[in-house]
Design brief:
CATH architecture of the largest domain in chain A: 3-Layer(aba) Sandwich
Radius of gyration of chain A: 20 Å
Number of helices of chain A: 12
Helix content of chain A: 40-55%
CATH class of the largest domain in chain A: Alpha Beta
Largest interface: A-B, 53 and 54 residues
Order of helices and strands of chain A: EEEHHHHHEHHEHEHEEEHEEHEEEEEH
Strand content of chain A: 15-25%
Number of strands of chain A: 16
Largest sheet of chain A: 7 strands, mixed
Oligomer: homodimer
Chain lengths: 352, 352
């Protein structure tokens, strides 16, 4: 199965598929300035927590590569500014901060390794390589998540997802959609129920498009149909991605996920979170500490530029938090974690 | 408080506000042919179970009034055809069938009252009066529902609703919004949380517009935000309308209502259904027997004529069923019914 590539490192620059234009137009931008990569993250040209991590890594590599600095100190000062700018793009996705932290550590390693003249070039080459490593690790993590997750699904069923936790969201085969892809490759008969995911329509625009490209059967529904289908629609499992997972397993994901989890539990439908360990934030004891991004009201009162409501006040929290007690299991690249998550997730990170 | 009038009987014909054009355009159509009234119901120019009942009544009155029949038998044959056509417009809203049944009974009464020549005119005048009586009863029922419901709300809170159970949906002050209007008139400090209600956007287009006209504060949200706000948004109560209520209290209402009810219960937020007794269908023991209208896929894959997804399969159940155990109380014009509903609802209908 050949899945779409939302981001790619090339010698000309970072090539990013513009997800704000899908499915109507398939447009790739080539960015040569890290500031444009930051803007692409902020404006959701690229989105999805793992893919944001890859984009941040490539943005930093691009910034360092194109820097005119001749000494390590000058380069470090520029690098710190790049990190700060990228850190301000999306507050909820922890992979962003994970990638920035990893690059900060790698920068220091590379600058220690070689304090001779020429150290600047060594750092440049090292960080460009690191960005590609991050991307490659992401791909491998997705495949492992997919394999672990597929084992949890019934051989023939409907699977509900939310938003887009697919190739477009990770740069690999996807987390939630990676589980579905691996199941389909393994001969399972799967039909995917795709909530459209207002206000940005990642379900209708991205997940429907991505599954359609891979000829995986799907039914598109509006977000308020999830309850009806969980009650009457023969759904065998819900599989979603994650933007940040607290130590106790509480999970921030696209707005609507919490509601799906509550209704799934009421109807005894297993609810799975599929996410790489980079999505874990062990510094947060519970989900209550996860910052929730508020986006513009206009994205609610308008749809693709067209006003759909009178001129009224709207709210736009982009994520919600699903308490761990609604989560049947968390599928990671190191295996399947079950409650109590504080323990099982800790073990997995230690296994790394 | 002077609320909008979605339907009005005039000497020129039935005047109906085109709800498919709101909030962008405020257009009234004057229908002189009952077939146009049937088409207006089917295409949702007028919608909302109680308003559909009023429209069906006025449609029948219009049809009988403009009939060229000179004898009672001829008029009856035409009347039966009118009833059949109207019965095929919307399958879930029971008020439609309630109105048709009431008109059939009234037709027979009027034809018995007077078998002399001139009976046709007597029937015509009688059914025109009956349509106005139905409308007037609707207005009075809304006011009583509003008063009973307001007593259940906290004096200062956020109230979540769903779809539009307002003046536009009933021809009075609304059922769910009638409760809110009566509370606001009584000095309560209410802010209404309005889910946009895809695919037709009755929340964003109609409820937001209607509340805005009356200067009642509101916050518009997308349908997948209901969980987040029920968990964290200080919601004091949910109040929704109903399209059909079974004998045991199971309630069919706009798609999404079931999910809201489940999440409300999880968060200990009272969940109220506000509906006139005409919405009761005592012939159905439970909600499982309520027919659920399937509307076109295009209403999901498109938004106001603009394609928003690739060319994929979509589902469009227009209603869902909320089991009685999630309903804190059902507010009717005869008072507030509580579980067990089989008993309490029966008592209320007997009180009529």
């Amino acid at each position: 199965m050949r899945t779409v590539e939302p981001i790619r490192w090339t010698s000309e620059g970072v090539v990013i598929l513009d997800q704000t234009k899908l499915p109507g137009e398939v447009i790739y931008h080539t960015y040569t300035d890290y500031r444009d990569v930051a803007r692409a993250i902020k404006s959701m040209v690229i989105r999805g927590a793992p893919a944001i991590g890859v984009a941040a890594a490539m943005g930093l590599a691009l910034g360092v590569k194109s820097s005119k600095a001749t000494g390590v100190e000058g380069l470090r000062a520029e690098f710190v500014a790049m990190c700060e700018m990228l850190a301000q793009t999306r507050p909820t996705a922890v992979d962003l901060f994970w990638a920035i932290d990893r690059f900060k550590r790698r920068f220091e390693e590379l600058s220690r390794e070689d304090s001779r003249e020429g150290g600047v070039d060594r750092i440049r080459a090292g960080l460009v390589a690191e960005a590609q490593t991050v991307h490659q690790e992401r791909r491998e993590a997705d495949e492992r998540i997919g394999r672990y997750g597929a084992e949890l699904l019934p051989k023939s069923c409907r699977v509900m997802t939310q938003c887009n936790a697919g190739a477009l969201a990770t740069g690999g085969i996807g987390t939630a959609l990676g589980v579905i892809r691996m199941a389909v490759e393994g001969g399972y008969r799967i039909e995917v129920l795709v909530p459209e995911t207002r206000p940005y329509l990642q379900g209708a625009r991205l997940t429907a498009w991505e599954l359609n490209q891979d000829r995986i059967p799907l039914t598109l529904i509006t977000d308020n149909m999830v309850g009806h289908f969980l009650k009457t629609g023969g759904v065998g499992a819900v599989v979603v991605g994650a933007d940040r997972i607290a130590r106790n397993g509480d999970t921030a994901n696209k707005i609507g996920t919490y509601g799906i989890a509550v209704i799934a539990k009421e109807n005894k439908v297993p609810f799975y979170v599929a996410a790489p360990l980079s999505t874990l934030d062990l510094s947060l004891p519970t989900g209550e500490q996860i910052p929730i991004e508020e986006r513009s009201e206009e994205e609610v009162t308008h749809l693709r530029g067209m006003r759909i409501s009178p001129d009224v006040h709207a709210a736009h929290p982009a994520f919600d938090v699903t308490p761990a007690r609604f989560i049947t299991a968390i599928i990671t690249e190191r295996g399947v974690a079950r409650a109590p998550y504080e323990e099982s997730l800790k073990k997995m990170t230690e296994a790394q």
